[in-house]
Known about the structure:
The structure holds 2 protein chains of 2 kinds. Chain A is α/β, with parallel strands linked by helices. Chain A has helices spanning 3-27, 38-45, 62-67, 70-76, 94-103, 116-119, 131-140, 144-159, 169-180, 206-225, 231-237, 239-250, 264-273, 280-287, 298-301, 316-326, 328-331; strands at 56-59, 82-84, 109-113, 189-191, 197-199, 254-259, 290-293.
Amino acid sequence: MNWLQIWLLTPALLLLGISTHEVVLRQAKHEPSINDNADLFCDVYSQVQELEPDDVILLGASRMQTGFDLKVFHNKFPRRKSILLAQSGRGSSYPVFEEIVKKSDFKGIVIIEETEDTLMSRKYKGQKYTQKEFVDYCNRQFTLNQQVNHRISALLESQFVFVKNEGSPLRRLWVNLLSQRQLPEQFYFKTILSREQLIDYDRADILSLEEFRDRVMEEVKEKAQQSVMSPEEWLGKTEHWWSTVNQFRARGGRVIFVRMPVSQERWKFESQIAPTENYWNRFVDKLNVKSIHFADYPDLSNFNLPDTSHMDMGDKPVFTRLLLTHLENELQ
Amino acid sequence: MTFNSYTFALFFLCVLVVYYILGKWKMRKQFLLITSYMFYAAWNPPFVILLWISTFADWQFSQFIAYTDKTSVKRIFLLGSLFVNLGLLGFFKYGNFILENSIYILKTLGINQNFSFVNILLPVGISFYTFQTLSYTLDVYFGKIKHWHSFLDYALYVTFFPQLVAGPIVRADEFLQQCEYEKPLVWSNISWGFSLITLGLFEKVVVADALLAPVTESLYSVSGTPTFTAAWVGTLAFTGQIFGDFAGYSTCAIGTAICLGFTLPRNFHFPYAAVGFSDFWRRWHISLSTWLRDYLYIPLGGNRVSNFRNQINLMITMLLGGLWHGAAWSFVVWGGVHGIYLIVERYLKKTFGHQAIWQSSGMRLLLGLLTFILTCLTWVLFRASSLTQATNIITSMLHFSSQAPTIDISNGSLLKTIAIIFSMLGIHWLFRDKSLEEITHKSPWWITSIALAVMLYAIATLHAQDRSFIYFQF
Lengths: 332, 474
């Protein structure tokens, strides 16, 4: 066998194929992005034990992942560490908060992003997954081996488009080229090592985005027409937070609840469904915690949110700076 | 640590370099043993203790057997080995299954007992290494081999990381002989080993995980009644997935071992080109079927007994072979159906086998297709999460379902699965009498090179959700 020839030609061909692949995808404005999976979550979650009482944990869902800029936080509070444990599309962050309170001795600040809907349920309606699953994965499966594997994988994903896990670029590239004679449409958001997600609406397909926005608005409008849960009933359903928040405070921890911005168009209906004074305010009064509801702050309410609830990466630092200004007393 | 992980790539490269740098053969074997324990510990460190128990127990028992003349004493030590190995397997793998069924039987008898179930974590590869240590003791007991002089060699035989967690199940005489002589660095071995690793990873990462697993899951991970097409396409996808997954693992294991200078037995030989089920089991998971043949079927009497008893032996072997795969009745039924296939095939061969028509290539192709279709039907039992789901899918495949279908499959999945399965069948049929070495040696070098580059390109760019190897759970 001509093994020498074989193993000289093979890497050369491989390099040619991968380079072409990378160049073609980058030409089509694809960008490297880290797989936002349980391993990435656990990698950040493993830092909880090392945090000091002045440090901050950010919980919530996609709005926190896309709206909070950790760099801005570090510039403003260079001595404090902050980690992002929000999870996109998995409902309430309560299971993560509960785990931090019960399984760690962290006594710093937790900033929690929730909505009226997610506050009352540990499991988001209709969702197959909950934030609990990632936490369980960290406790049971995130071994040293897994951690090393994740770190190498994340490093490659942060540098190259071709290794991107989500959506299998190979299939998308060749299926699109062969069947539709065009390059695959780029994804308009990406995840970075800190778990922040950066949305670049300039890269989004306008028609798809509009379709998505219309669908979301239809759902919100439909909800506004349905019978609404009474504030008392709703408050009763948020009960699980009470003891956990108190337990955390009893050991010196502080909690801040944040309602992240939605578009004016969306807020018109959401405020009908759950008016702030009857729902959100009653919840934070009951717990006696600091909260920021975007609707109470004009400077937080005027962001352009093309999909109705997620911030563009250009607005993210501005929003974070404003949010931190309003939290200045709590973070001193 | 799995072969399809970056950690393994890093680990293996380091092992390979240090292994060939180390001077003395004994030191190299010690190094391989330590790294094998590290490989296993990367999954769950405390379970290395189980591996040690199994290793030490069988070493001691076989030593006692070897140095005792009395058959009755030998038998006691053999029972000791069986007790330790099957005890470990019974507790960790079948503990809750036995408990669950005991409760059911007691309930049927009108005795209501409340037992609490323990959350037992199944140690990876326990079925493989216990069978391997057990085979050593059995071989010493039956006088097939002599008790080995070096504990280091024996421990390496049990623990050798390429085959530790999912086989092939290696026989002591095959491996221990190889420990006698130093393995020089042979570049053609390294090249062939890496080629096999590439092929194995392609089968696992690309064919099984990226292409077929999503189609399988669209049928088996949802509840409902599938259409005729969905039931067949989902099952065909699993048929390809399980081959890609397991044969992929075995190929990687063989390739990894070759790089280190060791030869592991072939575990798959184009099984979907089998004509009949005896042929299928000579081609599928060969190391397990030969293990069951040598240590269960033959000691039971094999075919040296009456026809009826022979069929019973065959059925016991297949039922236990099914149970080896998992603690669930569906696996037992799967083994049982294969047992029936084998019994029927033997009867048909005896009655009609002498006719010349069966030897024509057209008829053999038809019989091969029939074998494949019947194998697909049994894979349903293997993959389904319950016997109810299996029945549901099989009735849809046979067009017997009376319920309105709720699960359908997209045209894309249909085309993809058909294309892959037909290609797989074509390859298996074309090369059914050849080995991978022969195929590679007969191909022009540049074709091999292009094939390797294409496979590596697909592995690098066609990621899917990470899935562990199916056979890790066994």
